[in-house]
Amino acid sequence: MQLVLEKRAERSDTIALVSPLIAIGLTIVTMVILFAILGKNPLLALHAYFIAPLTDGYSLQEIAVKATPLVMIAIGLSLCYLANAWNIGAEGQFLIGAVAGSWIAVKTQGTDAGAWVLPAMLGLAAASGALYALIPAICKVKFGASEILTSLMLVYVADLFLDYLVRGPWRDPHGFNFPTTAEFDPVATVPLLIEGGRLHLGSIIALLVVAAAAILLGRTIKGFEIRVVGAAPRAARFGGFNANQLIILTFAVSGALAGLAGIIEVAGPVGHLQPGISPGYGFTAIIVAFLGRLNPLGILIAGLFLALTFIGGEQAQIAMKIPLDVTKVFQGILLFYVLACDSLILYRFRLEFPNRQVARGAG
Amino acid sequence: MRKSLLALAAGLLLAGSVSAASAADKLKVGFVYLGPIGDLGWTYQHDLGRQALVKELGDKIETTYLENVPEGPDAERSIEQLVRAGNKLIFTTSFGYMDPTLKVAKKYPNVHFEHATGYKRNPNMSTYSAKWYQGRYIQGLIAAKMSKSGVLGYIGSFPIPEVVSGINATILAAQTINPNIKVKIIWANTWFDPGKEADAAKALIDQGADVIMQHTDSPAPMQIASERGKLAFGQDSEMIKFGPKTQLTSILDTWGPYYIERVKAELAGTWKSEDTWGGLDSHMFTMAPYTNMPDDVKKMAEDAQAAITAGKLHPFKCPIVGQDGKPVECKGGDHLDDGQILGMNFYVKGIDDKLPGK
Q: Which of B214, B20, B90, B137 shows the shortest CA–CA distance to A44?
């Protein structure tokens, strides 16, 4: 007797709907066991992770702040992935956007530049992110270079470029040679939405991006094109859709969104340009995109959920002295179950009895 | 069945909140760590300091730490989370937490903050650091005596003044023994990355270095030096077990006494915002035993340590010539003043590396 995974005749829509729920359920069961082994009360731990952060305004704000860049980047990535274009370098586009926007902030520092500064920073950041994303896109279309590799490698270029700027030309002259620019002027800072909190305008922009993506994918021809090119390249060719053009377009859009997220993070929560502005947002967003099933609303939920695990993990660390590694294990387990459960959409388990198979073969 | 489960859950939650309440009359002290507490270097030493604190004052305080907190947008939230969990004195233990700590400090004037290795202060935010360059000077003397090739290998983390002053102190000391000593520098651009640090150590040894020094936090370079039969200095922490035949000495960060002193002040209501920069004469750091060297070298190191502790020997004694051949202005009388050392942004003569960003 053996267990085999066999392809379903058609994808199961029921499983597609419940699979994330099964995944979360399995994750919780696993975590309960893990907490018990660690000698922590599982119910209290789950409460610290999932319930406590949702019960006060401060934590809710922090969840929104953390989710903002993740959602913005993931929306852009989802367009790429739907069109079968594999942008892995959102982290680099995020950094380049942050650098380009910061350029205006640094150059206008201490001058009486007016309210145009922030909009100009956002615009330049988006444009630069898009241009940076076009490098792998064009290499792919013109030379057939793997966009996975080129976009990934450009992450390190962006990282080192930022590093060079804050250690050299843009270094805060009064900063004792530490690698950071001076704090941005108020006109170059993303406004806060709540006095004393950290929730900023960027979260609203992220919501607008989600809405725009939902309309693009659900109600426009371009959105249809993106989905067809990804799902059925041959059909798309017969339909006269230009796959190369879509690679260029989706890369540019996702680069722009990542760049925008970058400058919002720098001009918002951070307040200056420094190395390490991104704790891997560009990569975490890949998880968010897939966890959200490449669907704008799903991505919003996935982004908020992942942010919740960060905030909850931190609160569990404080309240219950649960090590940070457990939070990371938790995120890893979650992703593992999501992917595992997703395979059930297209496949199913079947028990196979070898002797019967022989009999069938003989008959 | 379901009802009883719910009741059980409610009971457990209630029990949790009760035990939290009974701890509320203790002073809560929070720590924010850059690395994992098991990094066996920087963060590990801070956590040893915290453990010393708990041992000394455990009946009056409760400590909480957050580890692996990146020096980016997350830091501010992590610090604020500790405030919101009721911590009244919070130690943020890496340079990159400076601005986030300041932001949170301004928001919560009734909470006291202690930031390690920074320069921004507030009425409720102190800074503390150690004059590690004094230890580097002693290491420079030992290195020059022990090196056969006359080439030292130095793994830098980031070219910030603390690290640059360490390199300069090392080479100034080494030049008093061997005027032609060479130093090869590799910038790892990280505080903690065992893989990168090991690669750097290998590259330095391949370039002829036979004494490895590091300003990064993991024991990886020590292990590589040990494998290759070279000598090395530990960093932050006692690393002799990673190189019993390799470690010459190590600068040991000993934060415990400082943490105890500050928490006692907080308990007594006498905490004030201060700027502490402790040297060998304070208890901010100490030197690990001098090992794997002949007695005369050991004697020399001990004498230098005694002289620095007594204030008779200053590692940055003038005249000092910069890499460009011009003498460095001497603002502290017969030595560089603290401001010049804290903002050090130049190499001294004899280093043929170029300072990044210059």
A: B20
Q: Does A225 touch chain B (CB under 8 A)?
A: no
Taking alpha carbons only, the member of A321, A303, A324, A326 closest to residue A257 is A303
Cα-Cα end-to-end distance for chain A: 20
Exposure string for A70-95, b = 16+ CB within 10 A, e = fewer: bbbbbbbbbbbbbbbbbbbbbbbbbb
What does the alpha-carbon distance between residue A272 and residue B323 come to, in Å, rounded to a whole number? Answer: 31
Q: Is the pLDDT of residue B47 over 90?
A: yes
Question: Residue A340 is which amino acid?
Answer: A
pLDDT score at B357: 63
- Residue pair B101/B125 in contact (Cβ under 8 Å)? The answer is yes
What is the rounded distance in angstroms from the CA atom of residue A98 to the CA atom of residue A259? 6
Which positions in chain A touch B96 (Cβ < 8 Å)? Answer: 274, 276
- Rounded distance, CA A21 to CA A31, Å? 15
Question: Which of A171, A279, A318 lies closest to B81 in CB terms?
Answer: A318
Which residue out of B28, B47, B81, B275 would a mutagenesis test of the A interface target, given it has the greatest number of A Cβ atoms within 10 Å?
B81
Please indicate whether residue B349 or residue B22 has the higher confidence score (pLDDT).
B349
What is the Cα–Cα distance from A289 to A88, expressed in whole angstroms?
12
Please, which residues have CB within 8 angstroms of residue B45's CB and are 6 or more apart in sequence? B236, B237, B252, B253, B254, B255
Mean pLDDT score, A173-200: 86
Residue B1 has pLDDT above 80, yes or no: no
Q: What average pLDDT does chain A have?
A: 89
Q: Is the CB of residue B108 less than 8 Å away from at least one CB of chain A?
A: no
From the number of C-beta atoms within 10 Å of its C-beta (0-12, 13-18, 19+), residue A16 rates as middle
Do B61 and B262 meet the contact criterion of CB atoms below 8 Å apart?
Answer: no
Q: In terms of DSSP bridges, do strands B247-253 and B125-130 run parallel, antiparallel, or are they unpaired? A: unpaired
pLDDT-based confidence at B8, cuts 50/70/90?
very low
Q: B188, exposed or middle or buried, with CB in 10 Å at 0-12, 13-18, 19+?
A: buried
Enumerate the β-bridge partners of residue B252: B286
Which residue's structure tokens are 């992590």?
B78
Cα dihedral sign, B264-B266-B271-B274: positive
Q: Does residue B22 carry a pLDDT above 80?
A: no
Check residue A363 and give its pLDDT. Answer: 40
Per-residue model confidence (pLDDT) at position A356: 56
B contact test, residue of A50, A171, A177, A309 with most B CBs within 10 A: A177
pLDDT mean over B121-141: 96
Q: Is the pLDDT of residue A361 over 60?
A: no
The helix (run of H) or strand (run of E) holding residue A348 is strand A347-352
Distances (CA, A) of A218 to A80, A222, B358: 16, 10, 53
Phi, psi of B186 (to 5 degrees): -120, 130
CB B259 within 8 A of CB B63: no
The residue with tokens 């070898």 is A354
Number of Cβ within 10 Å of residue A355's Cβ equals: 8
Q: Please report the domains of chain B, with CATH numbers, ordered by start residue.
A: 26-130 (3.40.50.2300), 132-253+286-342 (3.40.50.2300)
Cα–Cα distance between A330 and A335 in angstroms, integer?
Answer: 9
Residue B162 backbone zone (phi > 0: left; psi -120 to 50: alpha; other: beta): alpha
Note the pLDDT of residue B283: 81
For residue B342, CA distances in Å to A127, A171, B114, B133, B338 come to: 40, 16, 18, 10, 6
DSSP A233-278: HHHHHHTT--HHHHHHHHHHHHHHHHHHHHHHHIIIII-S--TT--
